[in-house]
Amino acid sequence: MTLPLRAATRYVTPLREGGSMPAVVEADDDGLYVLKFRGAGQGPKALVAELIAGGLAQALQLPMPEIVLMELDPDLARTEGDPEIQDLIRASAGLNLAMDYLPGAVNFDPVAEQPDAELASRIVWFDAFISNVDRTARNTNLLVWHRQLELIDHGAALYFHHGWDGDTTNAARPFALIRDHVLLRWATRLADVDAEMAALLGDDVIGGIVAQVPDTWLEGPDSFGDPAAQRAAYVSYLTQRLARREGFVQEAIRARA
């Protein structure tokens, strides 16, 4: 996995729906992207979660916008009138993360939409694997674009890594909050998709995804080692969780029942 590198050339508009204050920006390839700022409230750990979860979703062949690394020049703040946005841009100078902007996409409505059982099962399996607390009816983090579901916003996944010291003893812990997943009612094929999903994630796949996390996102007061040591801990945690996945799979099946 090699993430494309883009440079933001124009701040277009803020998206004020979440606490992280993402924004639509134009990049040097003339494309529009939803930029997630390293200097936002959740800090770089949210970008680490976005990158790792997004890479895993792509490896699992789940539908989601392309993710890229985005270089942000602090000089872009000069053209913005909002002091809060100016501060956010300056605090996020350097490498950030962005997703392809999907024009015309609408939020998934669990009342109006009925997703395919296999796709719902694969998404629930994925979210249980990455411990994603933020795919609920209250905040689905799913878009419908050209009549297809698209996964977005994984900054709240891997929540164990906030204040983490690299310990992986809890890697196999079931994910009880899967009971609140917006697609759980349609996830009737969890047991059927389990082996197929796991087969798409080998040590080399997980290692290649984690290797893309920039050093600058792994530095700061909450780091427990150099970037290489932290990447190794993420790989160890995820491979152990995958190998002992029966816990989170059975938890999801029980929650649905």
TrEMBL record:
Please indicate if the UniProt record lists Kinase as a keyword: yes
UniProt GO molecular function: kinase activity
**Superkingdom of the source species:** Bacteria
Q: Residue ranges of the HipA-like kinase domain?
A: 14-236
Q: Which UniProt keywords apply?
A: Kinase, Transferase
What InterPro entries does the annotation carry? HipA_2 (IPR046748)
Q: Kindly provide the name given to this protein in its UniProt entry.
A: HipA family kinase
> Which species?
Pseudoxanthomonas putridarboris
